[in-house]
Amino acid sequence: MTRTALIVAMTTAAALAQGCAALRSPPPLDTYELSAPDISGSGGRSRAQILIAEPAALKALDGQNIVIKTGPGVIQYLKGAQWADRLPEIIQARLAETFQKSGRFGGVGKPGEGLAIDYQVLAEIRSFDIRVNGSRSARVEIFVKLLNDRNGVVRAARTFTAAASVSGSSNDDYVAALDRAFGEAATEIVDWTGSAI
Predict the structure, then answer these.
(1) What does the angle CA 166 – CA 172 – CA 173 come to, to the nearest 5 degrees?
(2) Residue 59 DSSP class
(3) CA 132 to CA 149: how far, in whole Å?
(4) pTM check: above 0.90
(5) pLDDT tens for each residue of 98-148
(6) Residue 146 contacts by C-beta under 8 Å, 6 or more apart in sequence?
(7) Where does 63-151 show beta strands of DSSP type E?
(8) Is 57 helix (H, G, I), strand (E, B) or coil?
(9) Contact yes or no for 96/108 (Cβ under 8 A)
(10) Is 50:113 a contact under the CB 8 Å cutoff?
Protein backbone atom coordinates (compact mmCIF):
# COMPACT_ATOMS: atom_id res chain seq x y z
CA MET A 1 0.00 0.00 0.00
CA THR A 2 1.36 3.39 -0.96
CA ARG A 3 1.77 6.18 1.55
CA THR A 4 -1.11 8.14 -0.06
CA ALA A 5 -3.43 5.13 0.05
CA LEU A 6 -2.52 4.56 3.71
CA ILE A 7 -3.35 8.19 4.60
CA VAL A 8 -6.69 7.95 2.75
CA ALA A 9 -7.52 4.68 4.55
CA MET A 10 -6.66 6.18 7.95
CA THR A 11 -8.69 9.33 7.25
CA THR A 12 -11.69 7.25 6.17
CA ALA A 13 -11.44 5.06 9.29
CA ALA A 14 -11.26 8.15 11.53
CA ALA A 15 -14.30 9.68 9.82
CA LEU A 16 -16.27 6.45 10.23
CA ALA A 17 -15.32 6.26 13.92
CA GLN A 18 -16.49 9.85 14.45
CA GLY A 19 -19.75 9.11 12.65
CA CYS A 20 -20.39 6.03 14.81
CA ALA A 21 -19.60 8.01 17.97
CA ALA A 22 -22.05 10.72 16.90
CA LEU A 23 -24.75 8.09 16.39
CA ARG A 24 -24.15 6.73 19.91
CA SER A 25 -24.19 10.09 21.73
CA PRO A 26 -27.03 10.23 24.26
CA PRO A 27 -30.02 12.50 23.66
CA PRO A 28 -29.97 15.86 25.44
CA LEU A 29 -31.36 15.89 28.98
CA ASP A 30 -34.61 17.66 29.90
CA THR A 31 -33.41 20.61 31.98
CA TYR A 32 -35.58 22.17 34.69
CA GLU A 33 -35.78 25.20 36.98
CA LEU A 34 -37.91 26.03 40.01
CA SER A 35 -40.27 28.99 40.20
CA ALA A 36 -40.58 31.53 43.00
CA PRO A 37 -44.13 31.87 44.36
CA ASP A 38 -45.61 35.35 44.19
CA ILE A 39 -46.71 36.30 47.71
CA SER A 40 -46.67 40.06 47.30
CA GLY A 41 -48.78 42.05 49.74
CA SER A 42 -48.89 39.32 52.40
CA GLY A 43 -48.12 40.29 56.00
CA GLY A 44 -46.56 43.40 57.52
CA ARG A 45 -43.36 45.13 56.51
CA SER A 46 -40.01 45.09 58.31
CA ARG A 47 -36.99 47.33 57.75
CA ALA A 48 -34.68 44.34 58.30
CA GLN A 49 -32.14 43.46 55.63
CA ILE A 50 -32.05 39.71 54.91
CA LEU A 51 -29.19 37.66 53.49
CA ILE A 52 -30.08 34.35 51.81
CA ALA A 53 -27.07 32.04 52.15
CA GLU A 54 -26.56 29.04 49.87
CA PRO A 55 -28.27 26.07 51.55
CA ALA A 56 -26.25 23.11 52.78
CA ALA A 57 -27.09 19.66 51.39
CA LEU A 58 -25.79 16.12 51.33
CA LYS A 59 -23.95 15.11 48.17
CA ALA A 60 -26.99 13.34 46.67
CA LEU A 61 -28.85 16.68 46.67
CA ASP A 62 -25.83 18.91 45.96
CA GLY A 63 -25.78 18.61 42.19
CA GLN A 64 -27.94 18.69 39.08
CA ASN A 65 -29.49 15.23 39.47
CA ILE A 66 -33.21 15.00 40.33
CA VAL A 67 -33.61 12.49 43.15
CA ILE A 68 -36.15 9.65 43.09
CA LYS A 69 -36.66 7.61 46.29
CA THR A 70 -37.77 4.06 45.54
CA GLY A 71 -37.75 2.87 49.15
CA PRO A 72 -36.34 3.68 52.58
CA GLY A 73 -32.70 4.66 52.13
CA VAL A 74 -32.74 3.89 48.38
CA ILE A 75 -32.27 6.64 45.82
CA GLN A 76 -32.06 6.84 42.06
CA TYR A 77 -31.94 9.78 39.69
CA LEU A 78 -34.69 10.81 37.26
CA LYS A 79 -33.70 9.41 33.88
CA GLY A 80 -33.19 11.90 31.08
CA ALA A 81 -33.56 14.95 33.36
CA GLN A 82 -31.45 17.42 35.31
CA TRP A 83 -31.69 20.72 37.17
CA ALA A 84 -30.45 23.80 35.31
CA ASP A 85 -27.80 24.34 38.01
CA ARG A 86 -26.78 22.79 41.33
CA LEU A 87 -29.95 22.37 43.40
CA PRO A 88 -28.67 24.46 46.38
CA GLU A 89 -27.93 27.39 44.04
CA ILE A 90 -31.40 27.17 42.47
CA ILE A 91 -33.07 27.05 45.88
CA GLN A 92 -30.99 30.00 47.10
CA ALA A 93 -31.94 32.08 44.05
CA ARG A 94 -35.65 31.22 44.24
CA LEU A 95 -35.82 31.79 48.01
CA ALA A 96 -34.22 35.21 47.53
CA GLU A 97 -36.72 35.98 44.77
CA THR A 98 -39.64 34.88 46.97
CA PHE A 99 -38.43 37.13 49.82
CA GLN A 100 -38.07 40.02 47.34
CA LYS A 101 -41.52 39.48 45.82
CA SER A 102 -43.10 39.55 49.27
CA GLY A 103 -42.15 43.22 49.71
CA ARG A 104 -41.96 42.61 53.46
CA PHE A 105 -38.29 43.40 54.10
CA GLY A 106 -36.04 46.43 53.80
CA GLY A 107 -33.63 44.54 51.58
CA VAL A 108 -32.97 41.00 50.41
CA GLY A 109 -29.82 39.69 48.81
CA LYS A 110 -27.23 36.98 48.46
CA PRO A 111 -23.59 37.08 49.63
CA GLY A 112 -21.51 39.69 47.85
CA GLU A 113 -24.40 42.02 47.02
CA GLY A 114 -23.37 44.73 49.50
CA LEU A 115 -26.28 44.78 51.94
CA ALA A 116 -25.85 45.85 55.57
CA ILE A 117 -27.24 42.57 56.87
CA ASP A 118 -29.51 42.27 59.90
CA TYR A 119 -30.39 38.56 59.58
CA GLN A 120 -29.09 35.59 57.66
CA VAL A 121 -31.42 32.85 56.46
CA LEU A 122 -29.36 29.66 56.84
CA ALA A 123 -30.99 26.62 55.26
CA GLU A 124 -30.26 22.93 55.00
CA ILE A 125 -31.96 20.85 52.30
CA ARG A 126 -32.94 17.58 53.97
CA SER A 127 -35.29 16.21 51.30
CA PHE A 128 -36.02 17.29 47.77
CA ASP A 129 -37.24 14.22 45.95
CA ILE A 130 -39.99 12.18 44.38
CA ARG A 131 -41.25 9.21 46.44
CA VAL A 132 -42.40 6.34 44.25
CA ASN A 133 -42.95 3.58 46.82
CA GLY A 134 -46.72 3.50 47.10
CA SER A 135 -48.40 6.71 45.93
CA ARG A 136 -46.15 9.00 43.94
CA SER A 137 -45.49 12.36 45.57
CA ALA A 138 -42.89 15.10 45.76
CA ARG A 139 -41.44 15.84 49.19
CA VAL A 140 -39.48 18.88 50.26
CA GLU A 141 -37.94 19.32 53.71
CA ILE A 142 -35.82 22.38 54.51
CA PHE A 143 -34.45 23.22 57.94
CA VAL A 144 -34.02 26.99 58.44
CA LYS A 145 -32.23 29.09 61.07
CA LEU A 146 -32.51 32.87 61.39
CA LEU A 147 -29.14 34.18 62.49
CA ASN A 148 -28.87 37.70 63.90
CA ASP A 149 -25.91 39.01 61.92
CA ARG A 150 -25.15 41.70 64.51
CA ASN A 151 -24.48 39.39 67.46
CA GLY A 152 -24.32 35.85 66.00
CA VAL A 153 -27.33 34.62 67.98
CA VAL A 154 -29.85 32.29 66.34
CA ARG A 155 -33.17 34.09 66.62
CA ALA A 156 -35.34 31.13 65.61
CA ALA A 157 -35.15 27.74 63.87
CA ARG A 158 -37.74 25.51 62.24
CA THR A 159 -38.15 22.61 59.81
CA PHE A 160 -40.46 23.20 56.84
CA THR A 161 -42.00 20.26 55.02
CA ALA A 162 -44.30 20.20 52.03
CA ALA A 163 -45.62 17.51 49.71
CA ALA A 164 -47.44 17.47 46.38
CA SER A 165 -48.90 14.52 44.50
CA VAL A 166 -47.55 13.63 41.06
CA SER A 167 -50.34 13.77 38.49
CA GLY A 168 -48.65 11.85 35.64
CA SER A 169 -45.58 9.82 34.76
CA SER A 170 -43.46 12.18 32.64
CA ASN A 171 -40.41 14.12 33.74
CA ASP A 172 -42.51 17.29 33.46
CA ASP A 173 -45.08 15.84 35.89
CA TYR A 174 -42.41 14.87 38.45
CA VAL A 175 -40.73 18.29 38.36
CA ALA A 176 -44.06 20.14 38.45
CA ALA A 177 -44.87 18.35 41.72
CA LEU A 178 -41.45 19.29 43.16
CA ASP A 179 -42.05 22.88 42.09
CA ARG A 180 -45.44 22.98 43.85
CA ALA A 181 -43.99 21.51 47.05
CA PHE A 182 -41.09 23.96 46.98
CA GLY A 183 -43.49 26.89 46.44
CA GLU A 184 -45.46 25.89 49.53
CA ALA A 185 -42.30 25.57 51.65
CA ALA A 186 -40.84 28.85 50.36
CA THR A 187 -44.08 30.71 51.16
CA GLU A 188 -44.07 29.34 54.72
CA ILE A 189 -40.39 30.26 55.17
CA VAL A 190 -41.03 33.88 54.19
CA ASP A 191 -44.15 34.17 56.39
CA TRP A 192 -42.34 32.62 59.37
CA THR A 193 -39.31 34.88 58.91
CA GLY A 194 -41.51 37.97 58.80
CA SER A 195 -43.22 37.01 62.05
CA ALA A 196 -39.99 35.88 63.78
CA ILE A 197 -38.09 39.13 63.33
Answers:
(1) 10
(2) G
(3) 41
(4) no
(5) 999 999 999 999 998 888 899 999 999 999 999 998 889 999 999 999 999
(6) 119, 120, 121, 122, 154, 155, 156, 157, 193, 196, 197
(7) 67-71, 74-77, 81-83, 107-109, 119-131, 137-148
(8) strand
(9) yes
(10) no
